[in-house]
């Protein structure tokens, strides 16, 4: 009995220093904090996407500061702007070249639903008609704060995929 009290007083590693988790949770935590976005700006929303990376909004505090030029180096694509019929196969090919797991953010009303150009013959009515979208950021164009909020929602979706799947099934 005296030996147990001695261990507790001296802080010898033992029963109280155990952390339990799953490997999946640890991997999701690492993914959540180190997303590598792909630069894919199609229209005016791209300016707001670029502004997010400026000193005023400082996207680097979340670990997303390095926008990648190649889809093979990225795991997040931010579709910012109008997706046209001419860009549809390119968007699909870039998405297929990205590493798994991959995430998609549709930024702006044009990327979400075609925006004011939806009745045009060459505008795709939303990026989700081409690739699966994880988070929608509304606005025309959305403010940088809205994109940051959308990325925070993506973080929640990455860290808890079961909750994200339940939300998708409820729709």
Model description:
It is a single chain. The chain is an alpha/beta fold and 171 residues long. The protein is 40% helix and 9% strand. The chain has helices at 2-10, 23-32, 45-52, 88-97, 109-113, 144-159, 161-170, and strands spanning 37-38, 76-80, 103-107, 135-137. A four-stranded parallel β-sheet has the order 1-2-3-4. Helix 2 packs antiparallel against helix 6, helix 3 crosses helix 6 (144-159) and helix 6 packs across helix 7. The longest helix is centred in the last third of the chain and has 16 residues, at 144-159. It is globular.
Strand order of the largest sheet: 1-2-3-4
Helix content: 25-40%
CA radius of gyration: 21 Å
Tally the beta strands.
4
What fraction strand?
5-15%
Instruction: Count helical runs.
Output: 7
- Poorly predicted ranges (pLDDT <50, ≥5 residues)? none
């Amino acid at each position: 009995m005296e030996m147990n009290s001695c261990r507790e007083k001296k802080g010898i590693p033992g029963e109280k220093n155990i952390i339990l988790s799953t490997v999946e949770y640890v991997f999701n935590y690492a993914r959540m904090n180190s997303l590598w976005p792909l630069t894919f700006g199609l229209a005016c929303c791209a300016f707001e996407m670029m502004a997010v990376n400026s000193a005023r909004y400082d996207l680097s505090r979340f670990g997303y500061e390095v926008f990648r030029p190649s889809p093979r180096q990225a795991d997040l694509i931010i579709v910012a702007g109008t997706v046209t019929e001419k860009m549809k196969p390119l968007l699909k090919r870039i998405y297929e070249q990205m590493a798994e797991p991959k995430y998609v953010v549709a930024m702006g009303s044009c990327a979400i639903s075609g925006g004011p150009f939806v009745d045009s013959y060459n505008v795709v009515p939303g990026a989700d008609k081409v690739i699966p979208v994880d988070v929608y950021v509304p606005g025309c164009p959305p403010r940088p704060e809205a994109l940051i909020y959308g990325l925070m929602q993506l973080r929640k979706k990455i860290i808890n995929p079961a909750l994200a799947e339940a939300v998708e099934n409820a729709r």
